[in-house]
Each structure stands twice: as structure tokens, then as C-alpha cells.
């Protein structure tokens, strides 16, 4: 944080003495106790909430006392299975009221939770397992086939205990060691083995897509998560009752395996006493019905859902009672003037707020906390509390002042420890002074607002999911009829961006666009699929061989 002897511009937060931008938000206090894990930190917070999680489709719910009893019981069983500090435990599951219970149980022991997308293929999951080396996995019966042929003990979520084998035609000799249901019935044992856990110990290992195509494990500590929780609590002031006098209610529309969902729904909001209504998967009707049925006050979402709310506003208001809704929280990409004003016109009683963060910053970075701030159109918001920023010229390495464009660097208590077993990637992203190179090209204006201009990382944003072009390019280069390829983001009103491939055929090939799309679709999760193809004679590249994606993007969008 800023020192008293620094000359800091109160309007922008910029210090000319060291070219650092400091947050204009009120600083948050962080616990000084070094022997503190995220689970204990959350469970020790006082609040007046009663219902913690509700399953939107079944109505089944967990009270806060039931959550913490379940966490203790599951932790006891994990300890009995030999899970210890530093062990990695994999969680493959759709959103569930039990997802947070598993995460908090694992982290309470000092073990490390790693999550993965249920849409991922067996091949993609196998890669993550090979990298993270989990000693145990939690999954549902329907997802068991994705573990076929892997020697990994499984705890089954939502099914009875089959001690020897998984069931189903596509499952061969999967060892199921217990079920979550049985674990939650276990009497907690206070004398169980529990290693001393410190704030600097690793808590989560979430995988973030990179431009190289190699997914990297982001190592976040208990301190990182504690800082994230404190930031969320400070931002929304959720300890205060809503306008009805009761706790706030959120509907979980985003995946819990992702940092957005994990930060907000599996950890952060639990500390506030808020009620979280969980959708197992996103469905517009289910979301709107849940808002009406459970009198939801906060709706976190990604821009494509926001656009759908605008486009279908008349039908929605006629069919659903969403009058309790107070705020929507958008993340994933900055919102345009048209979207913001379109939403406020259709839903005048609902505030629109935004957030910016990365897996590498535990989802924390910048935010707009009022409608007035969101109306600084195109902004990602003001720096989060305790967060510092630099704008660096990528060519010269010079730290730039207000209204100059360069790469955004961030430093703060939620910034990751590094990439798992990848010192080269860690060194290239996180320097010795704790500055994280975000890969986002930005500027900070005279009032301290961050504006994202472009991405150095070139990730494609499909429905809020990140799709690395290089991963798809590497796949397509394995096709026997592809000589060269480049993948770019193509704008789409419904989903944000879709992956588009420019393909150079090998001599004599009559490869079709459907051949290309089908080849990729067989090997990747649905959100990564190529959805548009164009054939060219050559891929434009600079002298060093780097693909000139901007030229291809310009070509692709020139006829829009």
C-alpha cells in the first residue's frame, strides 16, 4: 500500500515517485494470525444467516450449522483415508450445494483442492491429473466414465457406496472408496490428524488457459483466499440486512469450478450469512424461476446472459416476478454503453455492477460498485482495496502515467503464489517484487478507472469461458490435410465470441469446413469447438513467425 511520504494524486491514485497506481477504495484489514486456514477464517465469522445453500431444482437446503457439521464430518473421513497437508484432491462436478462442503473440508486439512470443468473430455481431464497428481477425486455417477482407466480412488457424490467398481457400460474397474453421503453421516472426530496450516500454504490449484495452449495450474494460498473473501464482504457490505430486513440471497449461475464461482459461491459469500441458490447448470427459465421462488436480491452473471435479459425483457417481466432483484453483477468482459443503458431502461430498479479479475488474482482486481461507476462506459472499474497497479510499455518496460496504454500489472494480497511445477511460466508472469503481468492491454484514466483496450494473451471469451487459440491450432496442425492454421475470436451477440479457424489446406486436399469443425469437436469440450472456418492460401505472420491475429480479425469482421 501507499506510504505516507509518497506524492499520490488523490484523483487518479497515481504516484509519480514510483509510477504505481494505488487503489482509491478503503483499505481492508487482513488477519495477522499466520496459523489460519480459509475454512477456519470463514466459519469463525459472525452473521445472522440461517439457510446457506438451496438446490434450485429440488428445494433441498443446508443450514449454516449443517454446512459446518458436514465439513467437519467429511474432513474426518478424509483424514481417515490418509489425506494430509499438501495432498491434492480433484473435484469434478456440476454446481451443487455439496461443492463448497467438499472444497472447505479439503482445505481445512491443509490439502489442496483442484477443480475441473465437467464438460472437459477424458483426454483433457487426464492431462490435468497427470500434472496435478491428485491422490483422491470426488465426482458424480454420471461423470464416472471420464475416469475410466485411471488408477485414482473416487468418492461418489449423490450415489450410494459401491466399494469395488464403478457401474455403467463405459466405466471399467473404477475404485470407489466411499460416498459423500456416507462421509457426511460420520461423527466428527476432534482428535483426527490435522497438520498445522499457515496462511502461506497452498489452498487451491485452479487451471488457467494460456496462449501457449498448455493449461497452467494457478497456485493460490489461504492468504490469497482470505484476502478475496474480505474484499467481497467489504464490497457488498452483506452483513447489513437487505431492504426486507433479512439476509441477502444470491443465485449461482456461474460454474463453481471456475474462480468466479469458487470465489463467490463456494467461499466468499458463505462468510456473510447470505443464502446461495444453486443451479446445477445454467438455464434461463430455471434462473428466472429461482429468482422469483427464492426472492433473490443479487444475480451474478456473464455478459451474454445480461444481453439475453435485455432482449427478452418484456416476456421476462410478464412471466416472472423478479421484483426482489436489487443488483446484477457482471464479470468476464467490460460492458458497453448500449448494454448498460439498455439494461437500466428495461430494469430501472436494478443496479448494474461489474468486476474484473483473473484466476491468478483469486478473481480480484477491479470493480464498479455503483451505477454511477458503471456508467463510466467500457471501464473494468476502480482498483480493488489493497490492490496496486502499473501500466507497462511492452516494448520498453517503462512504467506509464495516466491515460497511457500498456500492459496492466497488478500486485496485492490476492495475487497467486505462482504456477504449479512451472517455474519458467511463473518467472515470466510474476516478478521478484510480486508484480503479476496480466496480459491485458489497458490504460488508467485521470479518475483511476481501468479501461481494457486489448489482450496480449489473445484468449477467446465464449460464454465467459476462456478458449486459448494455440490449443486449437495445435490440434488442427495434427490433421493430415492441414498445412497451417490460425484461430481467432469472432464476435457473436449471443455468446460474446466464437472460435474461428483460418486454415491452409495441404496440396490436393478438399478439406471442408465441417471436416475441420468435426475434427476439433471430437477432442475438446463443447465451449472450445471451432464454429466458423475460412480457407486461405497463407497465414499472415510477422518476421519472427508470430501469427498476425489482428490482421485476420480485421479480415473476418470487415463484412459485418
TrEMBL record:
Pfam name, any one: AMP-binding
The AMP-dependent synthetase/ligase domain, residue ranges: 45-420
Any GO molecular function: ATP binding
Superkingdom, natural source: Eukaryota
Swiss-Prot/TrEMBL keywords: ATP-binding, Ligase, Membrane, Nucleotide-binding, Transmembrane, Transmembrane helix
InterPro entries xref list: AMP-bd_C, AMP-bd_C_sf, AMP-binding_CS, AMP-dep_synth/lig_dom, ANL_N_sf
Domain (AMP-binding enzyme C-terminal) ranges: 471-546
Transmembrane segment boundaries: 88-113, 257-279
Similarity comment: family membership: Belongs to the ATP-dependent AMP-binding enzyme family.
Name of the protein described by the UniProt record: 4-coumarate--CoA ligase-like 5
Lineage: Eukaryota, Viridiplantae, Streptophyta, Embryophyta, Tracheophyta
Amino acid at each position: 500500500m501507499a506510504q505516507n511520504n509518497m506524492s499520490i494524486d488523490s484523483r487518479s491514485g497515481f504516484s509519480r515517485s514510483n509510477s504505481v497506481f494505488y487503489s482509491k477504495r478503503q483499505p481492508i484489514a487482513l488477519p495477522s494470525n499466520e496459523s489460519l486456514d480459509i475454512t477456519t477464517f470463514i466459519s469463525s465469522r459472525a452473521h445472522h444467516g440461517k439457510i446457506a445453500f438451496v438446490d434450485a431444482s429440488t428445494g433441498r437446503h443446508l443450514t449454516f450449522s449443517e454446512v459446518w457439521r458436514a465439513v467437519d464430518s467429511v474432513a474426518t473421513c478424509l483424514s481417515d483415508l490418509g489425506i494430509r497437508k499438501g495432498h491434492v484432491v480433484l473435484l469434478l462436478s456440476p454446481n451443487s450445494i455439496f461443492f463448497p462442503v467438499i472444497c472447505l473440508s479439503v482445505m481445512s486439512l491443509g490439502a489442496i483442492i483442484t477443480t475441473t470443468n465437467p464438460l472437459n473430455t477424458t483426454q483433457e481431464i487426464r492431462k490435468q491429473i497427470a500434472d496435478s497428481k491428485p491422490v483422491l477425486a470426488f465426482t458424480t455417477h454420471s461423470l464416472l466414465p471420464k475416469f475410466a482407466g485411471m488408477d485414482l480412488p473416487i468418492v461418489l457424490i449423490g450415489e450410494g457406496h459401491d466399494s469395488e467398481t464403478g457401474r455403467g457400460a463405459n466405466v471399467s474397474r473404477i475404485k470407489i472408496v466411499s460416498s459423500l453421503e456416507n462421509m457426511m453421516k460420520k461423527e466428527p472426530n476432534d482428535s483426527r490428524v490435522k497438520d498445522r496450516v499457515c496462511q502461506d500454504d497452498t489452498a487451491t490449484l485452479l487451471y488457467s488457459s494460456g496462449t501457449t495452449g498448455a493449461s497452467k495450474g494457478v497456485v493460490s494460498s489461504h492468504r490469497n483466499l482470505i484476502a478475496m473473501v474480505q474484499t467481497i464482504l467489504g464490497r457488498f457490505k452483506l452483513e447489513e440486512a437487505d431492504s426486507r430486513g433479512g439476509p441477502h440471497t444470491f443465485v449461482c449461475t456461474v460454474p463453481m469450478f471456475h474462480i468466479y464461482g469458487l470465489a463467490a459461491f463456494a467461499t466468499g459469500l458463505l462468510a456473510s450469512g447470505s443464502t446461495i441458490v444453486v443451479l446445477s447448470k445454467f438455464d434461463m427459465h430455471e434462473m428466472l424461476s429461482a429468482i422469483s421462488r427464492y426472492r433473490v436480491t443479487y444475480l451474478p452473471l456473464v455478459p451474454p446472459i445480461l444481453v439475453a435479459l435485455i432482449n427478452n425483457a418484456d416476456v421476462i417481466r410478464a412471466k416472472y416476478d423478479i421484483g426482489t432483484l436489487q443488483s446484477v453483477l457482471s464479470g468476464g468482459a467490460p460492458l458497453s454503453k448500449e448494454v448498460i443503458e439498455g439494461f437500466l431502461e428495461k430494469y430501472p430498479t436494478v443496479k448494474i455492477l461489474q468486476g474484473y479479475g483473473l484466476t491468478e488474482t483469486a478473481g480480484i482486481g477491479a470493480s464498479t460498485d455503483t451505477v454511477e461507476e458503471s456508467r463510466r462506459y467500457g471501464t473494468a472499474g476502480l482498483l480493488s482495496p489493497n490492490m496496486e497497479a502499473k501500466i507497462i510499455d511492452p516494448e520498453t518496460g517503462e512504467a506509464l502515467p495516466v491515460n497511457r496504454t500498456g500492459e496492466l500489472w497488478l500486485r496485492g494480497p490476492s495475487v497467486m503464489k505462482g504456477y504449479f511445477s512451472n517455474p519458467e511460466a511463473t518467472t515470466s508472469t510474476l516478478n521478484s517484487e510480486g508484480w503479476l503481468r496480466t496480459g491485458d492491454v489497458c490504460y488508467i484514466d485521470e479518475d483511476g478507472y481501468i479501461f481494457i483496450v486489448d489482450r496480449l494473451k489473445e484468449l477467446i471469451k465464449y460464454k465467459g469461458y476462456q478458449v486459448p487459440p494455440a490449443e486449437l491450432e495445435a490440434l488442427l496442425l495434427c490433421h493430415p490435410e492441414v498445412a497451417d492454421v490460425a484461430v481467432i475470436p469472432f464476435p457473436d451477440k449471443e455468446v460474446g465470441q466464437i472460435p474461428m479457424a483460418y486454415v491452409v489446406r495441404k496440396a490436393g486436399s478438399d478439406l471442408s469446413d465441417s471436416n475441420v469443425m468435426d475434427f476439433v469437436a471430437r477432442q475438446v469440450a463443447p465451449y472450445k469447438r471451432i464454429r466458423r472456418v475460412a480457407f486461405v492460401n497463407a497465414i499472415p505472420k510477422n518476421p519472427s513467425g508470430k501469427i498476425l491475429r489482428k490482421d485476420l480479425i480485421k479480415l473476418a469482421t470487415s463484412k459485418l
